[in-house]
Write a structure and sequence with these properties.
The chain is α/β, with parallel strands linked by helices. Helices cover 40% and strands 24% of the residues.
């Protein structure tokens, strides 16, 4: 009887370890990097040190997993420099940390156990230095806003589905703050965007 109890406890312990497999399985990962339009030079830094580069996009970068966020800077002739931050753990506020350009797939779901894992793919929208008309400028930023709001809706749905009951309200409030910050940034960029003289 005693031996059976020990075996059952060992089995339960092994099952418990299985839930952490996504955290400890490997110390590096590959991130797909896209830009719209293609052909940009994107550099990735962590703690001030270059940890990866894709030139030109699209491409992939191999990166060590870490709790630290990664800063991204993408450059392309004829477009403003585009900067962003990729978080390695679930932070709804990550939505507000993307200062320039649009990023798809920046949120990593902590409920999956991938606390140290970066997104598998990121996409940056590059902003032209000069638009052909006011209408072209406004459409560009309206599309960026719609894309972002679509991503925000997915984040909210994920939070509601997987958050712990005591944490849901705080996570949703953080997501809202991130949304408002991002929308304000898009509008600021629209107002600063240059248009060819008539």
């Amino acid at each position: 009887m005693h031996r059976l109890l020990v075996l059952l406890l060992l089995a339960a312990g092994l099952l418990g370890l299985g839930g952490c497999a996504t955290i400890v399985s490997g110390t590096t990962q590959t991130i797909g990097v896209n830009t719209d339009p293609e052909g940009a030079d994107c550099q990735f830094t962590r703690k001030g040190k270059l940890v990866g580069r894709v030139n030109p996009t699209p491409g992939t970068v191999q990166m060590g997993k870490d709790y630290e966020s990664v800063a991204v800077l993408c450059r392309k002739e004829g477009f403003d420099d585009t900067a962003g931050v990729i978080g390695s753990e679930f932070q709804a506020m990550t939505l507000g940390n993307i200062l320039l350009g649009g990023v798809i797939g920046v949120v990593v779901d902590a409920a999956s156990g991938a606390m140290m894992k970066y997104p598998e793919t990121v996409t940056f929208t590059l902003i032209p230095k000069l638009f052909d008309s006011d209408a072209a400028r406004d459409k560009f930023f309206a599309d960026m806003r719609d894309t972002f709001l679509g991503e925000y809706a997915e984040v909210v749905a994920r939070i509601k589905q997987k958050c712990a009951p005591e944490a849901c309200e705080n996570e949703l409030k953080a997501a809202e703050a991130g949304r408002d910050s991002r929308l304000a940034e898009i509008e600021k960029r629209r107002l600063l965007a240059k248009v060819k003289p008539a």
